[in-house]
Amino acid sequence: MFWSKKPAKEEGKLSGPKEIPGSVQNYLVAERKMDPDLIKLLKAVVRKSTTGATFNIRVFDSSEAKAKEVQVKDYTSLDECPDLIIYEGWFDNEAKQVKLEEKKKVNWDTPIFTQAEIQQKIEALKEPGKTVFFYMARGIKSGGPLGMGAAVVELNPNYPGKKQKKYIVYSADVIDMQPVGTGQKMFDSDKPKHVAHWIKDAHDKRMY
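User: That's the sequence. What structure does it adopt?
Assistant: Structure tokens below.
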């Protein structure tokens, strides 16, 4: 009688994305001068090295992965998506050693505009069809330095046509710091102050 091959042992299974290990967080703060609050928003995938107590690690932004429609299940998931890897290297908790290589430069120092500044940028749109965008920390989209895509404001090219309003507001995913197209229409308005207020409500320090 032939028996089916037994599956690999459970302990050999790679773990899914998790919070960055404490020793690696400390390294990123001390050596890479990263904001501790930002580090807690990133994810890590690890796998046990074949030698010693060392673990291989890759650090990535799960929000960017979602914007690119990439499902990161474990360490090997990023083999096909190296552009998502921010840091890659290894750590050894027993030896208290961490070694990381920066794989991608990311501009985390994103200015947070006041409502008045947002309104000013909207009112500066003069040519029909032109747009301005603002990164979002809350919303329905993904990606970007604030994690939740961007709000895109377009000067309506059909304004002042019948039943047309001056500004159209969209919510868009962000990839490589830029909105992906105009995105999903949220609303339109003739009032730049109203638009600026709506954007400012979600244009703030990153939380996810």
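The helical segments are 22-30, 36-39, 62-67, 115-123, 192-200.
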